[in-house]
Every structure is written in structure tokens, then in C-alpha cells.
Specification:
This protein is of the alpha/beta class. The protein has two domains: about 25-200, 3-Layer(aba) Sandwich (Rossmann fold); about 210-250 and about 265-395, Up-down Bundle (Dehydroquinate synthase-like, alpha domain), CATH 1.20.1090. Helix content is about 45%, strand content about 15%. The chain has 16 helices and eleven strands. Strands 1, 2, 3, 4, 5, 6 and 9 form a seven-stranded parallel β-sheet that branches. It has a two-stranded antiparallel ribbon with strand order 7-8. Strand 7 and strand 8 form a beta hairpin. The chain is globular and about 60 Å long. Keywords: Amino-acid biosynthesis, Aromatic amino acid biosynthesis, Lyase, NAD. It comes from Tepidamorphus gemmatus.
Length: about 400
């Protein structure tokens, strides 16, 4: 047999790299987190290396500091009381709360500079204390510094404790697009302190309840009925009612993330964003004068009415949903719903295009077939959306 001479093109070969990464993190509900007698924070930091002194950098919402000027001192006192386990490398670092921290990458870069200066490594902790926007931005910092340092979330709003704080998403806005720059990275732990919620301004207490209504509508009819039955206690912010509402909402979000089959949103289905396609657009249209929860409440009412008009949801359920939201204290109308682009199209409809672009793939929007049952559709009719908006305007007497 003769010898083969010259170069021989190799056959195509494909190797499949496949592995599974397991994620686990505690979500704790407590009170007086920074009381030295409460060891939740200390025990959380020590859960992997009990004998180690853990280096920590704390980022805190400056709005929270205005409300609780004593809080930075309480954190430092807590660290001193547990100095065998906690090494606070610097005083708590204040950052702007709300959407302010998400609209300018300068804040992200400044926090990363502080982590660099204090030699925060992958076994150190970045502890974020604040509302959902602060957690989103600091989570982005933590997940991109050294490709990931340990991030502990301390949510201080209803919205952060019952929704965003327990999830795996981090991000900030760019060019007016919500969460355009972001990562999927689970936190090391989530520590919820009800006392922070109870001292919130009334508007922020109300705003966070929209996510409870949302997740009840798509996943748990009995929870929706509990919200209806306990609406008076919730509007009075009774601690037991607030605590249950937050815990059950957080639990339903956690179940969806863990068992929904797509925790990092590689597909096009996002049931937890029911009502959000218009909410994100309304936030931008109002220059964030609408709180996220306030915009979500409008989006829920809009998509509930659309579900009725599309023949999916029984007539009357939309009124029931709107009544609950209104009784909780939400106004289900904003004039931004009526603004139009230069071509005459409703400006809010751009939210559908942005929603699809953010997801990738085909448009997928969650609607309702019953209270407690979500249903995905892949197109929405602009005419029906217009009629749903008209319905909201008429309800509000605008």
C-alpha cells in the first residue's frame, strides 16, 4: 500500500462540553437584622468558612440613610460586636437610590473602584442594602468584579423583598432601555428585614404590592383571594399581613425561578413579567416619576382587560382585578398612555418591540385565561390594546 503524501484535511470533529452547575442560597426573613443579638448576618457570612474573619464592603441606599441616619453606625457596631467573623474594610458607602443609580454607569464604575482600592477578592463580600435598583446595580458590580465576588442582598422595600431581591438578575439601564447592561448571577444570600418595610413612606409600601397581585394572577388563585380578603389589613400595613404577603410573593417567585425550567431566561417565555411590557415603557415615558410598582399595576390592569377583549379571560374578572389594585391604593391611569409618536402610533406600543428585543426570539407576552392561570401569546393587537387603554381612561374618569 502506497504512502499518503502532502497535507490531508482532517475530518470534521465535534466535541460537546456539558456540565451542570448547582446554585443554592438562603433567603431569610427576620427582624432587627443589625441588632448584635441577631446572628443571621454573621452566620450567613460564616456558612462556608466558619473559622474565617470575612472581609466585607457595604453599599447602602442614600435615601435609606436619610430616613435612618443611625443605620451606618448600627452596621459598624454590628461588625465590631462580631469582629471575630466580620472585617468591615470601610464605612458603608452611600449610593443614589431608585432609578438614579441605574441610569448612569458612573455609579457602577465608582463602586468597582472602591472594591479595587480595598482589595475585595472573590472570597470577600459585597453587601448591598437598599431597594431593588440598588440591588440591581450592586449585583452587576459584584458579578463582574473578578468575574464574581460574593454578593449579599439586604432588600429594604416591599418590591425588593417580595420580587427582585430573591431573583438572579442584575442590571442597569442604557440609552433609556431598561436593564440593557446586566448579568444573571445568583446572590450569596438574601436577608429580608421587615422593619425596613414598615418604616417606608406610604407610596413605596403600596407600590411593592403590585408584584404580589401579579404573581397571584399568573400562579396562585388562592393567594389572590387572600389578598382580596386581607386588603384592609394591607392598606393599614399591619405587620402580620405585610409579612405574609411578602413571604408568599417571594416564595412564588422562587418556585418559578427554580422550577420554571429557564432561570437565566435563555428562551422567550417570561411569565414573571406579566404586565411589564407596558410598565417598562411607562416608566421611561414618565421619566421614572411613576414607581416601578405603580407602572406594573397599570400594566396588570391593561393586560387583564386585553385578556377579556381577546376572549381569554371571563368578562368581569378584569373589573375584579382592577378593584383590588384600586383598593390597595393604585391609580390605574396615567396620561402617558395617550401620548403618540410622530407617526401617530401610541408611544407605549414601543414597549412591545423593546420587550421582544430584550428577550430575543419571537414576541412572547403572558396574558390570563383565569385568575391564577397565565397564558403565553405571541402577538398582540394594537386595536385591542387601544380599547383596553380607553377602558382604563374611562374607569379613572380622565
Amino acid at each position: 500500500m502506497g504512502r499518503v503524501r502532502g497535507r490531508v484535511s482532517p475530518a470534521t470533529e465535534t466535541y460537546r462540553q456539558e456540565f451542570t452547575v448547582s446554585y443554592s442560597y438562603p433567603v431569610v426573613f427576620t427582624r432587627r437584622l443589625f441588632d448584635p443579638d441577631n446572628t443571621v448576618l454573621r452566620d450567613t457570612l460564616a456558612r462556608l468558612e466558619p473559622a474565617k474573619r470575612h472581609r466585607c464592603f457595604v453599599v447602602i441606599d442614600d435615601g435609606l440613610v436619610e430616613t435612618m441616619p443611625e443605620l451606618p453606625g448600627l452596621i459598624e457596631d454590628y461588625a465590631r460586636a462580631h469582629r471575630d467573623s466580620i472585617d468591615l474594610v470601610a464605612p458603608p458607602h452611600p449610593v443614589p437610590g431608585g432609578e438614579r443609580i441605574k441610569v448612569d454607569l458612573h455609579f457602577v464604575e465608582r463602586i468597582q473602584q472602591r472594591l479595587y482600592e480595598h482589595h475585595i477578592d472573590r472570597h470577600s463580600y459585597v453587601i448591598a442594602i437598599g431597594g431593588g435598583a440598588v440591588l440591581d446595580a450592586v449585583g452587576l458590580v459584584s458579578s463582574t468584579t473578578h468575574r464574581g465576588v460574593r454578593h449579599v442582598r439586604v432588600p429594604t422595600t416591599v418590591l425588593a423583598q417580595n420580587d427582585s431581591g430573591v431573583g438572579v438578575k442584575n442590571g442597569v439601564n442604557l440609552n433609556g432601555v431598561k436593564n440593557f447592561v446586566g448579568t444573571f448571577a445568583p446572590p450569596f444570600a438574601v436577608l429580608n428585614d421587615l422593619d425596613f418595610v414598615l418604616m417606608l413612606p406610604e407610596r413605596d409600601k403600596i407600590a411593592g404590592m403590585a408584584e404580589a397581585v401579579k404573581v397571584a394572577l399568573i400562579r396562585d388563585r388562592s393567594f389572590f383571594e387572600w389578598l382580596e380578603a386581607n386588603v384592609d389589613e394591607l392598606t393599614l400595613y399591619w405587620p402580620d399581613a405585610m409579612a405574609y404577603m411578602i413571604r408568599r410573593c417571594a416564595e412564588l417567585h422562587m418556585i418559578q425561578i427554580a422550577r420554571g425550567g429557564d432561570p437565566f431566561e435563555t428562551g422567550s417565555v417570561r411569565p414573571l413579567d406579566f404586565g411589564h411590557w407596558s410598565a417598562h415603557r411607562l416608566e421611561a415615558l414618565t421619566r421614572y416619576h411613576l414607581r416601578h410598582g405603580e407602572a406594573v399595576a397599570i400594566g396588570i390592569a391593561l393586560d387583564s382587560r386585553y385578556s377579556v377583549l381577546a376572549g381569554l379571560l371571563p368578562e368581569g374578572d378584569d373589573i375584579r382585578i382592577a378593584c383590588l389594585l384600586e383598593t390597595l391604593g393604585f391609580r390605574l391611569w396615567h396620561s402617558a398612555l395617550d401620548t403618540r409618536d410622530s407617526d401617530g402610533e401610541r408611544s407605549v406600543l414601543r414597549g412591545l418591540r423593546e420587550f421582544q428585543e430584550h428577550l430575543g426570539g419571537e414576541l412572547t407576552v403572558t396574558l390570563l385565561t383565569a385568575i391564577g392561570t397565565g397564558h403565553e401569546v405571541h402577538e398582540m393587537d394594537a386595536g385591542l390594546i387601544g380599547r383596553a387603554i380607553d377602558w382604563l381612561r374611562e374607569r379613572a374618569g380622565a
